[in-house]
TrEMBL record:
Natural source organism: Spirosoma montaniterrae
The protein's name: AraC effector-binding domain-containing protein
Gene3D superfamilies, alphabetized: Regulatory factor, effector binding domain (3.20.80.10)
Lineage: Bacteria, Pseudomonadati, Bacteroidota, Cytophagia, Cytophagales
InterPro entries: AraC_E-bd (IPR010499), GyrI-like (IPR029442), Reg_factor_effector_dom_sf (IPR011256)
Protein origin, superkingdom: Bacteria
Domain AraC effector-binding as annotated: residue spans: 24-163
A Pfam family it matches: GyrI-like
Length: 163
């Protein structure tokens, strides 16, 4: 289900339970807060550059993986920015290679500008809890389509980890 944030209401039935497949990714890891998140906007481009230099084949879009994130802007959490790649024995220069295990989650597809994501989360979590789900502290954002000329066309799959 795709929605625009102008509605600011997400129906519980628009959420789907899924388990992702495992994947290998070129990975940047750090600690961040919601207030410092934009300091890492350069990383996706650098991941693509390094993948090209190593001859790695991307197998999926950039993902931001959050561990311990909450709505508190000052809460520090684990952040991994990853580019899925084909399995390789290559040795990255500035990043690491990591295999990510399957992830059981509730999935929601959002279409629109990323600066409206906080409002999307404000609508998403009530629907998540209303559907009887329990949050495990992990979230993934999969940037399935990007359009920097028209950010209203960005498509982001939000995956909320399940207990």
């Amino acid at each position: 289900m795709t929605t625009q944030t102008t509605a600011l209401m997400i129906a519980p039935e628009s959420l789907s339970v899924a388990t992702t497949v495992p994947f290998m990714a070129l990975t940047f890891s750090t600690r961040a807060t919601l207030l410092t998140l934009n300091q890492h906007n350069h990383v996706p481009g650098e991941l693509y550059t390094e993948a090209e230099q190593l001859g790695l084949t991307p197998t999926g879009p950039i993902q931001y993986i959050y561990a311990g994130v909450s709505g508190d802007e000052t809460n520090e959490f684990g952040l991994e920015i990853v580019l899925p790649v084909a399995h390789t024995q290559a040795k990255p220069f500035g990043f690491s290679l990591k295999t990510f295990a399957p992830f059981r989650c509730v999935s929601y597809e959002y279409t629109g500008p990323w600066d409206e994501l906080p409002a999307v989360y404000d609508a998403l979590f009530p629907a998540f809890y209303q559907a009887g789900h329990k949050y495990n502290g992990h979230i993934r954002e999969v940037y399935t389509a990007t359009d920097f000329d028209n950010p209203n066309n960005h498509v982001t799959e939000i995956q909320v980890g399940l207990v």
